[in-house]
Write a structure and sequence with these properties.
The complex is a heterotrimer of chains A (165), B (485) and C (537).
Chain A: E1 3-9, H1 13-23, E2 32-35, H2 38-52, E3 53-60, H3 69-78, E4 86-91, H4 96-106, E5 110-113, H5 118-136, H6 149-158
Parallel strand pairs in A: 1-2, 1-3, 3-4, 4-5
Chain B: H1 8-16, E1 24-28, E2 33-35, E3 43-49, E4 52-57, E5 63-69, E6 74-75, H2 77-82, E7 89-92, E8 96-102, H3 103-112, H4 114-215, H5 221-233, H6 239-252, H7 258-264, H8 269-281, H9 284-325, E9 333-335, H10 337-347, H11 349-352, E10 356-360, E11 367-369, H12 371-389, E12 394-402, E13 406-413, H13 447-457, E14 461-466, E15 472-479
Parallel strand pairs in B: 10-12
Antiparallel strand pairs in B: 1-8, 2-7, 3-6, 3-8, 4-5, 4-7, 9-11, 12-13, 13-15, 14-15
Helix pairs in contact in B: 3-4, 4-5, 4-9, 5-9, 6-7, 9-10, 10-12, 12-13
Chain C: H1 3-21, H2 29-47, H3 52-66, H4 72-76, E1 81-82, E2 85-86, E3 93-96, E4 105-108, E5 116-119, E6 121-126, E7 129-133, E8 143-144, H5 159-163, H6 169-186, H7 189-198, H8 205-222, H9 225-240, H10 249-264, H11 273-284, H12 291-316, H13 336-353, H14 355-358, H15 362-365, H16 367-375, H17 381-385, H18 389-407, H19 410-417, H20 425-442, H21 445-467, H22 471-483, H23 493-500, H24 506-531
The chains are: A alpha/beta (165), B alpha+beta (485), C mainly alpha (537).
């Protein structure tokens, strides 16, 4: 089964752990991949995530060693396979300029300031993954228990039903 | 050849001997006004004895001295020749005597009487020569004055420039002082929660062991103690390694939930092997729940560790902030320069993250300086280097001793370097290559100027050169012993 | 192309041609063609080289082409006929010797579709000709010269009859049910009823589970099983997140929905297409079952299997948690259109259940929502377009195949092949029900019943009275057994949806499905033997 992944990019190991821990409830359906740099993230997307499924959500810090988060997101947005991916900037400092680039060129979906509120992170993740799933998936049932059930229900009820009896 | 001038008494006698001259002798005392500005005297007078000062009234009512008439000189000559009213006032500066005759007489006799002519002409010539000499002297004086004035003006400009620079420096210092106060306040406020945070983390550790030691007796206590201990002492794995081990475990145990696998992947392989064999011994029905409990305990340890690490880091940053701004040490002191450089690197870590940082700071003899000010030098140079490098690059920071009594600190970047013709200019106030004022640097072109000012005040110097591989090298030399004056 | 597709196509074509290549004694050419179509349809429905509803369309197309009176085959292959030549100065005629049937009869083309048969007195044979005398003959008569031609025995069906299958009363009944269900979904009546039903059951997991199964069952009795499952899944899946990962109750809850839907579909004629197919086949035999009677027949088995399934799920997947709260936000829609829907829904259901009192067929009653809902603006063009037309086509294919099997004499022939007296009448019923159950696990239930119904009808029509074979209970049992075919994820769309949720292991679904299916099958056989015959007219 092709699964929808969540990707976290953050260079501070403890912070990365905290993000992954906050998102652990999603892992039942959405496998989480954690990387420390944009370079590693590119490799993981190419070699680990895309061969097994797709990338639904990328949560990136902006200030990273080497390539910064916004530029990585622009890269994701430029690739066909990750264009629909929802992108979240989770950062303590990203200048106005970087944020503008992120919004315009990477279709940034959300901006979360550090330190984040775990409830907000979970809510944003739930909302964005619901958006993604509604946009890209036909079988919505696997997501009902984790994502925004109301919106998925609405779509299931208004959409076509499978096969005959 | 010169025109002979008769002695004054002889002239007076000669003139008085001509009755058509209608001349009369008049005495004056100090303060007598002999001629008033704006009047037409109608007479011409020869000063026989005493001194008369000439005054010009300015519009503000002050009087300006124009010169002094001495015996042998004529009063009223100018009005006679021009026919205009007098443009000065003549006042006796001492008591004395005048020989006065009406203008028309004087002119007529000059034209018609050869003896009068013979007497007066040398007198007139003498008067003219005198006046010419005075004009020349005046010109010289004016030129001299102008020169003095210009010199003074230049001095003044220099003084103004210096004042402005001082003012800017003062503003900057004031800023630093405010930052220092702020930092001290924040540090004080933050220190308490940090202390409680790190104490809590420290105490949680033994507390947990107590819980497992005395609380529940399940026969599995050592296993859980070990889980907690492993968590507390665990160092975060590199994400690559973490991913490999997670994948490996997921292959071995496909039924375990992924978050559990992720946690177990952090356990070192030996402990994991131990855990696995321990798990073989418990009945299969409780194995999974026991394993998740074990993992939860391990996680608890990790969390305690993370709290401790985070508290330590905040403490470190606050310490750096405090020592960076050195509010508590405003006076010069013998300090280790490396401390300040390290503080600066810590505090501006978010700017430096993009770059490769090479730091080589061997031990240095202490330097007498004002650490707060010197830290500003590092800040300005480092931020300047980052600014020059843009998005990627390498920053080298190193230091050393220059015998006999100097230390040097070098800050090198891999940016475009400084063009030769700008080498001197970059240290001047208001020289900037930054397009717009931005939050990081001062943006007013003061950074390097201030740095130089501070270094020079400490008796050191700052140089800039190009690195052979491109980029700029700023080197600061500071004397070790010398205190700033 | 996949092997399955190729196999299906090959078998289908082979199946179509085989009966034509052999001379099957007793079966006319039309019967052979029909057998070919039947085998082709069976192969196509089994292997699905084309979608199953397409196969139904193909069936109708082939019937119209090959079997209808107006079709090219009947038009082009009229048996040749000649006018008899009068023998001068006598009452006698000469005919080609080939025209003679059974030594002294000839076939005479008349005004009807089938030729008339007259006896002639043979006076003389001379070479290829015979001299005959019969008072029906004149020089205007047309004597068929090839009496063994298939069209002499087969009376072609008008093509309208094949097309009419799409407007079969049973399809109208089903359409009425679908429109009511669409309206219910649109105005959230399904959700509201579920809420109403679940509320009094509290939070004890066992009762919540019972409530879920009950609500699913009731809804799927009136709505399509698939739509019901889809709706109920959106109710239960969100609350699963509240249960621990390893709580077996999760599996029980997810399983309760398809199980409830599959069982609930049995309860009414419109619950699921197999019921309608069986009913339609029975109606063709004049054995129609009114709506309410079907419910009375089906209810015991539905309740028994539902209760058994409940116990089974509780037993296999005991809840670890002590309470489970279902929250269904929202309330009854009170807009005028929604109220209109409730009224139409209520009226239709009432009329269905009171058929005995007023005598109006449930098929006709079903036309009430079909007319009233669009007229009142309760459903619109979107819902009309959204009707399950492929299911209607599938059913129509089956119905028209039944027509062909009956009219071409294939039914009678097939029954004649088997020595029914050698086995008990109930053994035949049991065999069919068993075959139906097995097929339904792998095939669409509708297809299963579509294939089996004509066979059962044939047996019933020809062998019935002689052997004590009871058609109505058998067909009902076949339809019911097909609904119990729910072992595999592919067995039914509700199963597929449940598996698609990712919350279910294959083995859980198969274990539960197999046990409940076996129990249901046994109960269906018991009912067919002892209970349902009580309702025979």
């Amino acid at each position: 089964m092709r699964r929808i992944h969540i990707l976290c990019v953050e260079d501070e190991p403890e912070v990365l752990e905290a993000v992954v821990r906050d998102l652990a409830p999603f892992e039942e359906v959405f496998p989480i991949e954690a990387t420390a740099t944009a370079d590693e993230a590119r490799r993981v997307v190419r070699d680990v995530i895309l061969p097994r499924g797709e990338l639904g959500l990328a949560i990136c810090d902006h200030i990273l060693p080497g390539e910064d988060g916004v530029s990585f997101m622009v890269h994701l947005h430029a690739q066909e396979a990750t264009r629909a991916t929802r992108k979240v900037l989770l950062t303590a400092q990203a200048g106005l300029q970087a944020t503008i680039v992120a919004v315009n060129q990477a279709a940034l979906s959300h901006y979360l300031a550090k330190p984040w509120n775990p409830d907000e992170l979970v809510a944003v993740t739930r909302r964005l993954l619901t958006d993604y799933v509604l946009e890209t998936q036909t079988n919505l049932y696997p997501f009902l228990s984790l994502l925004e059930a109301d919106r998925l229900t609405e779509r299931i009820r208004s959409g076509p039903l499978p096969g005959d009896e | 050849m010169s025109i002979p001038i008769r002695p004054l008494d002889r002239i007076r006698e000669a003139l008085q001997s001509i009755p058509e001259a209608q001349s009369e002798v008049r005495d004056f005392v100090t303060g007598d006004v002999l001629l008033r500005e704006g009047d037409n005297p109608g007479t011409i007078s020869l000063i026989i004895r005493g001194e008369i000062e000439l005054l010009k009234h300015a519009e503000d009512g002050d009087e300006y001295p124009l010169g002094t008439l001495r015996p042998g000189q004529l009063l009223g000559l100018l009005s006679l020749s021009s026919g205009n009213a007098s443009f000065f006032t003549a006042r006796a500066a001492s008591e004395g005597t005048l020989l006065t005759m009406p203008d028309d007489r004087f002119v007529e006799l000059l034209h018609n009487r050869i003896d009068f002519h013979q007497v007066v002409t040398p007198l007139l010539l003498g008067n003219l020569v005198d006046r010419y000499r005075r004009v020349v002297r005046l010109h010289l004086e004016v030129a001299e004055l102008t020169r003095d004035l210009n010199a003074e003006k230049r001095q003044l400009q220099a003084a103004i420039d210096e004042l402005e620079e001082t003012r800017n420096r003062l503003v900057q210092q004031e800023k630093m002082a405010t930052l220092g106060q702020l930092t001290a306040g924040i540090a004080h406020e933050i220190n308490n929660p940090i202390a409680s945070l790190s104490r809590a983390a420290d105490l949680l550790h033994p507390q947990w062991h107590k819980v497992f030691g005395e609380g529940i007796e399940r026969g599995l206590t050592p296993m859980f103690r070990q889980a907690f201990e492993l968590g507390v002492t665990r160092e975060p794995l590199q994400t690559e390694i973490q991913r490999q081990r997670t994948a490996e475990l997921a292959r071995l145990f496909p039924d375990l939930p992924r978050p559990l696998v992720r946690t177990l992947a952090q356990v070192n392989p030996e402990s994991f092997a131990e855990l696995r064999s321990a798990m073989q011994r418990v009945p299969e029905s409780v194995r999974l729940s026991l394993l998740s409990q074990w993992a939860a305990t391990f996680e608890a340890g990790v969390l305690v560790r993370n709290v401790r690490v985070a508290a330590e880091r905040i403490g470190g940053i606050v310490g750096s902030l405090k020592s960076y701004s050195r509010q508590d040490k405003a006076d010069e002191d013998a300090v280790d320069l490396r401390q300040g450089i390290n503080d600066t690197l810590v505090l501006f870590g978010y700017v430096l993250k993009k770059f490769i940082l090479v730091v080589d700071l061997p031990e240095l003899p202490p330097v007498r300086c004002r650490p707060g000010e010197i830290n500003q030098v590092w800040t300005n140079l480092i931020l300047n280097a980052c600014e020059a490098m843009g998005d990627t690059g390498t920053l080298w920071v190193c230091c050393g001793v220059r015998p006999p009594d100097q230390v040097w600190v070098r800050i090198q970047d891999s940016g475009p370097g400084v063009p030769r013709e700008l080498r001197e200019k970059i240290f001047e106030s208001h020289f900037t290559t930054k397009q717009i004022a931005c939050a990081r640097g001062s943006g007013l072109g003061l950074g390097l100027a201030i740095a130089r000012g501070i270094v020079e005040k400490h008796g050191g110097r700052i140089t800039v050169s190009d690195a052979p591989e491109g980029g700029a090298i700023f080197t600061i030399f500071l004397p070790t012993g010398a205190a700033p004056d | 192309m996949k092997t399955k597709t190729i196999t299906g196509l090959a078998l289908g074509i082979l199946g179509f041609l085989t009966p034509l290549l052999f001379d099957l004694p007793g079966l006319g050419f039309a019967g052979q063609v029909t057998l070919g179509i039947f085998l082709l349809a069976a192969a196509f429905w089994l292997f699905e080289p084309v979608p199953i509803y397409t196969t139904s369309m193909l069936v109708i197309f082939l019937e119209v082409l090959l079997l209808s009176a107006e079709g090219p085959l009947c038009k082009l292959s009229q048996p040749p006929a000649v006018s008899p030549r009068a023998v001068p100065e006598s009452q006698d005629f000469t005919l080609p010797a080939a025209s003679l049937v059974e030594t002294n009869q000839v076939l005479l083309r008349g005004p009807g579709p089938l030729p008339g048969r007259i006896a002639v007195e043979i006076l003389d044979r001379a070479g290829d000709e015979v001299r005959v005398r019969a008072f029906e003959l004149s020089t205007n008569s047309l004597v068929i010269t090839r009496p063994r031609h298939w069209l002499n025995t087969y009376r072609p069906t008008p093509y309208r009859d094949f097309f009419a299958a799409l407007a079969d009363p049973i399809i109208i009944l089903f359409m009425g049910g679908c429109l009511l269900a669409d309206g219910a979904v649109k105005y959230r009546l399904d959700r509201s009823l579920t809420r109403l039903f679940l509320k009094p059951l509290g939070t004890r997991p066992a009762f919540v589970l019972l409530g879920l199964m009950g609500a699913t069952g009731i809804l799927s009795a009136f709505m399509s099983n698939t739509a019901t499952t889809a709706m109920m899944m959106t109710v239960v899946l969100p609350i699963l997140a509240r249960l621990a990962d390893d709580d077996p109750l999760r599996t029980a809850v997810v399983l309760s929905i398809p199980v409830g839907a599959n069982i609930g579909g049995i309860a009414t004629p419109i619950g699921t297409p197999p019921n309608a197919i069986a009913l339609s086949a029975l109606s063709q035999q004049g054995l129609g079952i009114p709506f309410a009677r079907w419910v009375v027949m089906a209810l015991p088995i539905v309740l028994l299997t539902m209760a058994f399934a409940w116990f089974l799920l509780l037993r296999l997947y005991p809840a670890r948690t002590g309470s489970l709260t279902l929250d269904l936000p929202g309330k009854f829609d009170r807009s005028p259109r929604a109220l209109g829907l409730y009224a139409v829904f209520g009226a239709t259901a009432l009329l269905w259940f009171t058929e005995k009192q007023h005598g109006i067929s449930s098929n006709i009653v079903a036309f009430l929502p079909v007319v009233a809902l669009p007229m009142l603006g309760i459903v619109g063009k979107k819902e009309i377009r959204g009707l399950p037309w492929e299911v209607f086509w599938l059913m129509a294919g089956g119905i028209s195949l039944g027509t062909a099997i009956k009219t071409t004499g294939l039914a009678a022939w097939m029954v004649g092949r088997v020595d029914w007296s050698s086995m008990g009448a109930f053994a035949i019923t049991a065999g069919m029900v068993l075959v139906g159950f097995v097929m339904a696990n792998f095939l669409s239930h509708t297809v299963t019943v579509t294939l089996l119904a004509p066979i059962a009808v044939s047996v019933g029509a020809v062998a019935g009275r002689a052997t004590g074979f009871d058609l109505a209970p058998t067909l009902v049992a076949v339809a019911v057994a097909s609904s119990y075919g729910m072992t595999l994820p592919i067995s039914t769309p509700p199963n597929a949806i449940a598996m698609g949720s990712g919350m279910l292991q294959n083995r859980d679904l198969m274990k539960t499905g197999a046990i409940i299916g076996a129990v249901g099958l046994a109960l269906a056989l018991l009912c067919a033997r002892f209970y349902w015959p009580l309702f025979n007219p």
